[in-house]
Structure formats: structure tokens, C-alpha cells
Amino acid sequence: MGEGAGAVEGVVMADAACRCRLCGAGLSRTFADLRVSPLANSFVPGDGGDRMEPFYPLHVFVCTECWLVQLREFETPSGIFSNYLYFSSFSESWLRHAERYAGDMVRRFALTGDSFACEVASNDGYLLQYLKAAGVRVLGVDPARNVAESAIARGIPTEVAFFGAATATRLRAEHGPADLMTANNVLAHVPDIHDFAEGFHILLGDHGTATFEFPHLLRLIEQNQFDTIYHEHFSYLSLGVVERLFAGHGMEVYDVEEQPTHGGSLRIFVRQAAGDRAPVSDRVTAMRQVELDAGLQDVAAYDRFAAQVVGIKCEALSFLIEAKRAGATVAAYGAPAKGNTLLNYCGIGTEFIAYTVDLNPHKQGTLLPGCRLPVRGPEAIAETKPDYLVILPWNLRDEIVGQMAAIREWGGKFVVFIPELRVF
Ligand SMILES: [Zn+2]
Question: Which of 183, 232, 240, 359 is buried most deeply by CB count within 10 Å?
């Protein structure tokens, strides 16, 4: 229980001059200042309510030279990821997303038994299992030993390692160049994005493709998704920024798709830039223009965001205060990192929300970091029949509404705070 609670040692500050991790320019422009917060995945053991917790600044800057939105201070990756409580396979909708991806890639790139696919941040093998079932030779790479062991147990070969130039060089020597590389929701979590990108340049074959999925900064801004800001999430990415990153490592983004996951993500397709290549897809040109039209290269768009964040906090607190005064009971669903950002930034504790529930047995019995809501099993909802159920992982809203439909039997209502307060 609560293994993640040990992951608090060894904070490393960004260098004192505070440089952009993409282009090296000085950082001074605030994008969002969520003050101080505990590490979002540092769950407190259920019997650890009397222990202290470290809080770290959660201050996001935008670089006005290259427009990378980034967290200034960070925890060392070994502290954050060495014993991770997130198992991808606990989310049904994410599994379906991975299965569709595998099918699409096998068709698009005509992958066969001779093909080699490598996933970076492969977690518990949730995605590679589908490529393996299609006959593709697969290899996972993940720094968290506990999730990697879970992958190995289901027959997915997995290297316990941080991915970067050194790991890629070793893997290329052992396994050969990759035909397909996958990195979903990991680019934003990497402190050294240059070493990470170089790793793809090293391991990817001359005619291979690497795909990356990441939450789109454009949607974060439009949909008030400030709760996706947490310490493990160093960069907030747009197409323009990742094009610049890969161009610096001999690669190019040649196609892009929008995905509904995580509140609106981009999936980019990246290849080695050298040699004869088909033209870059029109979708890349179109998305560059969408980002430009939305002002992603203009400080005003970033400045507006701070006011939106305060607006959400006011709405959430007003709702909870009113519910409290009316004698209504409120519980929450889910224990995602984004929930911890929201609850801590808004100052919401058990006085407003009695507890939360999560399907992940590793989280049950713990307390959420900072706000210390108890995490219970989903059966607690039927036992206590709350009037309102706040959905913290709003990106899984439809899935959760389906699972929890029984709350209608006692007149219970669902609540989300992002992109705006909705009670339904
Ligand atoms: Zn920069």
C-alpha cells in the first residue's frame, strides 16, 4: 500500500538561470501559477495521516522564444517513476484506444512477423499485447519496475530503463532498428527532451515511423484543463513545438491526427528526415495554421489562461459550499493526478467531499496527497448513496457515467468541474 508515498526525495531544481528546456532562452513569463502542491502521485498510506508531506511549487512558464510551455522546477525522475501506481490496464477506454491503434498501425505500415515494434513507457504491456497478438516482435521500455514486471508476467519483453540516447544505442545493438516506435503520454513527462528525442533518432529504422501522443496545449487552454498540470508533467505541447524538437534531431513530423483521449490529444507521425521522402501531409500544414490562428505564438493567449483558472476555482467552491449548506452529501470518483491538482489548488478536503473511489486496488486504502481524501473501493458509492458524485478524471466521463449509472436510483447526480461546472 502507498508505495508511491516514498517518492519524495531528491528534488532537483531547474538550473538557477531558469532556461527553456527546448531552446535555452531565459524563462520569465508565467502561464499558470498553481502555488504549491504535493507530488500528484505520492499517495499517503492510510495509516499515515499524521505524517508530513513535502509541497513543491507548481508554476508553469511559457518560453516566448520557442513557445514551449513548461514547469520550472522538477522532481528527479527516479523519485517519481521508480514505483508507479498507474497501471494502464485499469482503464477500459484506454485499452480500447490501444487496441485500435495497434490495428491501425499494422494495416498502415503493413507490419508482419518480420517487423520490430518498440514502445517507450510501455507500462504494463497494455498496448504491446495487441501488436504481439498480430505477430509483431515487440519490446517495451519502462523505468517503473513494478509495472514492467506486470508486463513481463503477461509475456511482453520489457526493459526496465529510462529511455534516451544511451538506452537507444544499447537496444539498437541488441534488437536492430525499429519499424514502429510508440510513445503515448510520455514526451510531456520527460525532463531532458533532447536526450529523449535523440533516442528515437538512434533506434528508429530509416523507413520506420515513431508515433507520439500527447495532450494538445490548444485544448488545455480552450477547455480550462489546468488540472493536467502537475509535477511529473514537465512540458505542455503543441505541434509547432514538437516539430522544432524533432527537427533538431534529424527527424520530421510528417503526419498528425487529432485524438479524443485526455481531453484532446495529438498523435504525430515522425520519421528520419534524411533521404527521399513523400511530402508532409496536408494535415500537418492545417494544424500549424490552427495553432497560429489560436494565438499559440502570441503572449496574449497565454496571459488569458490565468484568469480562466481562477474562474474554475470559484465555480467549484461555490458549488461545494452551496451543497454543504443544503445538507447534501458529496463523494468523488477516481484518484488521477489531475484530481489531486484540482483539489489541492482549490483547497477542497473532506469537509466538502467525503471520500473518493478508485478501481485500482493499489490506490484503495490510501489518502490523496495534500487534500487527504480517503480512497475507497467503488462499492462505497452504493453503500453511502451520495447526492453528488464528482468525476475527477473528466476525460473518462462517459465510461464512469456508464459504470456508475446506479446512482440515479437514489437521485444522485454527476458533477464535473472541467471544462466548466456541470451537474447532470
Ligand atoms: Zn524556448
Answer: 183
Least confident range from 51-60, 190-199, 308-317: namely 51-60
Q: Are residues 55 and 197 in the same domain?
A: no
Instruction: Give the pLDDT confidence of 370-394 residue by residue, as tens digits.
Output: 999 999 999 999 999 999 999 999 9
Single-letter residue type at 35: R
What's the CA-to-centroid distance between 318 and ligand 1, angstroms? 38
Per the structure, how many domains does the chain have?
Answer: 2
Task: Report the separation in Å between the CA atom of 223 and the middle of ligand 1, taken as the mean of its atom positions.
Answer: 24
- 305 domain-assigned: no
pLDDT for res 17: 54
Cell numbers placing 296: 499559440
Q: How far is the CA of 379 from the centre of ligand 1 (A)?
A: 47
CA of 241 to the centre of ligand 1 (A): 9
Quick: pLDDT tens for 395-416. Answer: 889 999 999 999 999 999 999 9
Other Cβ atoms closer than 10 A to 78 = 12
What is the 21 CA–ligand 1 centroid distance (Å)?
7
Cα-trace Rg, the chain: 21
- Protein residues placing their CB within 5 Å of the ion ligand 1: 20, 22-23, 25, 63, 65-66, 68
Indicate whether 8 pLDDT > 80.
no
CA distance 382 to 376: 12
Kindly tell me if the per-residue pLDDT of 105 is higher than 80: yes
What is the domain-level CATH number for residue 202? Answer: 3.40.50.150
Residues 70, 110, single domain; the answer is: no
CATH number at residue 393: 3.40.50.720
Burial class (CB in 10 A: 0-12, 13-18, 19+), 227: buried
Q: Are residues 232 and 291 in the same domain?
A: yes
* Cα 191 to middle of ligand 1, angstroms: 14
Distance 396 CA to ligand 1 centre (A): 32
Mean pLDDT of 283-305: 96
In a domain, 259, yes or no: yes
Residue that is last in its domain, among 258, 284, 299: 299
Contact 239, 291 (CB under 8 A): yes
Q: 307-328: string of b/e by CB count within 10 Å (b at 16+)?
A: ebbeebbebbeebbeebeeeee
Tell which of 231, 265, 299 closes a domain.
Answer: 299
Domain that holds residue 99: 88-299
Number of residues that make up the chain: 424
Residue pLDDT, tens place only, 70-91: 997 655 545 555 445 566 666 7
Question: How much distance in Å is there from the Cα of 284 to the middle of ligand 1?
Answer: 21
Taking the centre of ligand 1 as the mean of its atom positions, its distance from the CA of residue 187, in whole angstroms, is 16
Residue 218 pLDDT > 90: yes
